[in-house]
Design goal:
By secondary structure, this protein is mainly beta. The protein has 2 domains: 92 residues, Pseudouridine synthase, CATH 3.30.2350; 117 residues, Pseudouridine synthase (2-Layer Sandwich). It has 3 helices and 12 strands. Strands 1, 2, 3, 4, 5, 9, 10, 11 and 12 form a 9-stranded mixed beta sheet that branches. It has a 3-stranded antiparallel beta sheet with strand order 7-6-8. Strand 1 and strand 2 form a beta hairpin.
Length: 242
């Protein structure tokens, strides 16, 4: 690969870490080695040493993923030692992950069971990979949901709504913390309580130019024990959307 400047903003970098602000519409991972217009491609162009980290050529040093439509903080480890350390840290809950989401509320029976004036509010429905589509998750909102609808076992998922800002009739700006890291967790959980994210066509959100979900803040422990507190600026148009 020809070295070039990273086309995504660099939020933080040291000898061990590289943190990018991924734009909406940019895939996190390439499907082939020739595909470079991805977050992985941007990271490799800036820090070729990543190619030696993690053991997966298409995911070099990558510690987590963001959906293509999701923007925000994406973390890479630049050494194998740091990669393995942070992989373990990620599993222990020491990493704090805060997102922002723009949603449009829909009328639903679930809304009658939730008092959003009492925050934080935790959504704890288990989730599973859809048996019909690899691009969709299924939420178990009741025990009546059949296991035949998913592949494998239901997965524990905890999504915490911390703050709610009103943008207009039925439109809200949510601050969310995720305690687990299941595929489509925020998107699927919010859709399950009839607050789908604007621009989320998979989970029947309002049509928009993009998916309005942003990996906003991240707190993780450096190897020195110091907590690294990161923030990715909200995308343009956030307060004016929808």
């Amino acid at each position: 690969m020809v070295a070039r400047d990273c086309f995504l903003p660099i939020i933080y970098e040291d000898e061990d870490l590289l943190v990018l602000n991924k734009a909406s519409g940019v895939p996190t991972l390439p499907h082939t080695h020739s595909e470079t217009e991805t977050a992985v491609g941007a990271a490799l162009a800036h820090a070729p040493v990543l190619a030696q980290v993690g053991g997966k050529p298409l995911e070099p040093g990558l510690l987590h993923r963001l959906d293509t439509g999701t923007s925000g903080l994406l973390v890479f480890a630049k050494s194998e030692t740091e990669f393995q350390r942070l992989r373990q840290v990620w599993k222990t809950g020491w990493v704090k992950k805060i997102y922002r989401a723009l949603v449009k509320k829909k009328a639903s029976v679930y809304l009658k069971q939730i008092d959003f004036k009492k925050l934080p509010y935790t959504i704890s429905y288990p989730m599973g990979h859809s048996a019909k589509s690899s691009k969709k998750m299924i939420v178990f909102t009741s025990e009546k949901k059949q296991l035949s609808l998913i592949r494998g076992k239901p997965l524990k998922a905890l999504t915490v709504i911390k703050k709610i800002g009103k943008l207009g009739p039925d439109f809200f700006d949510l601050e969310i913390e995720i305690k687990t890291g299941v595929m489509h967790q925020i998107r699927c959980h919010l859709a399950a309580i009839s607050w789908p994210i604007v621009g989320d066509s998979v989970y029947k959100g309002m049509r928009s130019s993009r998916l309005w979900l942003h990996a906003w803040k991240l707190v993780l422990p450096l190897k020195t024990g110091v907590l690294l507190d990161l923030e990715a600026e909200l995308p343009k148009g956030w307060s004016n959307t929808p």
